[in-house]
Write a structure and sequence with these properties.
Helix content: 25-40%
Shape: globular
Structural class: mainly alpha
Strand content: 5-15%
Strand order of the largest sheet: 1-2
């Protein structure tokens, strides 16, 4: 992985399988036994966020409540801030844009 490549952490409502088929890897990597914050912590322990882009970490907005941040996103935010040693706010992305945004991820 390099600058500009993306990893998507998502729940079962995200069209992960169809997006994964369009990636370099070409298949979905599932991590069913761990929470999203725990997975974020593990990934960030070996791969820092890309400081060359503004949207290195993003979150899907809640439909009709774009400023609302669900508990799981708050927990992921804490893991990001802990790993980076500073506040690194998740960039909000509108729901429909969030499903088309990661069409280039590596995994």
């Amino acid at each position: 992985m390099g600058h500009g490549d993306r990893v998507v952490l998502c729940d079962t409502n995200f069209p992960a399988d169809s997006v994964a088929r369009q990636t370099v890897l070409g298949r979905l990597l599932r991590i069913d036994a761990a929470s999203c914050p725990r997975v974020a912590r593990a990934i960030l322990s070996v791969m820092p966020l890309d400081s060359f882009v503004e949207d290195a970490a993003a979150r899907m907005e809640v439909v009709g409540k774009p400023a609302e941040i669900p508990p799981v996103q708050k927990e992921v935010q804490q893991e990001i801030d802990r790993a980076e040693g500073k506040s690194w706010p998740l960039v909000p992305i509108e729901r429909m844009a969030s499903t088309s945004m990661p069409r280039r991820p590596i995994a």
